[in-house]
Specification:
The chain contains 6 helices and 9 strands; from the N terminus they run βαβαβαβαβαββαββ. By secondary structure, it is an alpha/beta fold. A 7-stranded mixed sheet has the order 3-2-1-4-5-6-7, with helices on both faces. Strands 8-9 form a two-stranded antiparallel sheet. The model has no long low-confidence stretch (mean pLDDT 96).
């Protein structure tokens, strides 16, 4: 069984698909801890509703550190203490609205996955509905989502899986988000299984799926 951690700032809707797959015995995993930088994030409530350890870590308490990168690292070190205590195998960023420090990405190299609501490298760097609005404003006919390993570059880590989603003329940012989230849930489950089976390897900036 693989031990998972989820970092989330919002509802962590995709996490529900993981919880359901675990409960239905379709995924041999356990979510050991959910951590949020937002005290009122529904992700924490979702975790508690399913008996999962839920932890709020306040970024604001590190405000005395003036250097932004040092502050981010101090915050991430606190997160790391909680992760290491739970002996986590894989960290999932699901609607996590903070960039990770270089220290954290190196500490858990190739053990952090992020789900991004576009077909990277297109529309990198944005978050949530801002990405879907940008996709619509650009007149794209196809969008999708990307599961990738996280490194120090914003949305630039090795791509593991992608799934396309067709855009309808009637779509707005909300309807597109709902479509893309369904695709996100498919590939995040597949990515966790591949990781657990030891079928993922990283060579340079490429993630390789082994047979």
């Amino acid at each position: 069984m693989i031990r998972l951690a989820v970092l989330a700032s919002t509802k962590a809707t995709d996490m529900q698909a993981i919880i359901d797959a675990i409960n239905d015995r379709k995924l041999d995993a356990e979510i050991s801890i959910v951590i949020s930088d937002k005290k009122d994030a529904y992700a924490l409530e979702r975790a508690k509703n399913h008996g999962i350890k839920a932890v709020f870590i306040d970024y604001g308490k590190f405000g005395y550190i003036k250097d932004k990168e040092q502050r981010r690292e101090a915050f991430d070190r606190e997160i790391a203490k909680a992760l290491d205590k739970e002996k986590v195998d894989l960290i999932l960023l699901i609607g996590y609205m903070k960039f990770l420090s270089k220290w954290f990405t190196q500490q858990y190299k190739n053990k952090i996955m992020n789900i991004h609501p576009s077909l990277l490298p297109k529309f990198a760097g944005g978050m949530d509905k801002d990405v879907h609005r940008a996709v619509l404003d650009a007149g794209e006919r196809v969008t999708g989502c990307t599961l990738h390993f996280v490194d120090e570059s914003p949305d630039g880590g090795p791509i593991i899986l992608q799934k396309e989603v067709r855009i309808s003329l009637s779509d707005d940012a909300q309807s597109l988000k709902e479509k893309v989230q369904k695709a996100e849930q498919e590939i995040i489950l597949k990515g966790i299984r591949l990781f657990a089976q030891g079928k993922l390897a990283v060579k340079g900036k490429k993630a390789i799926i082994k047979n």
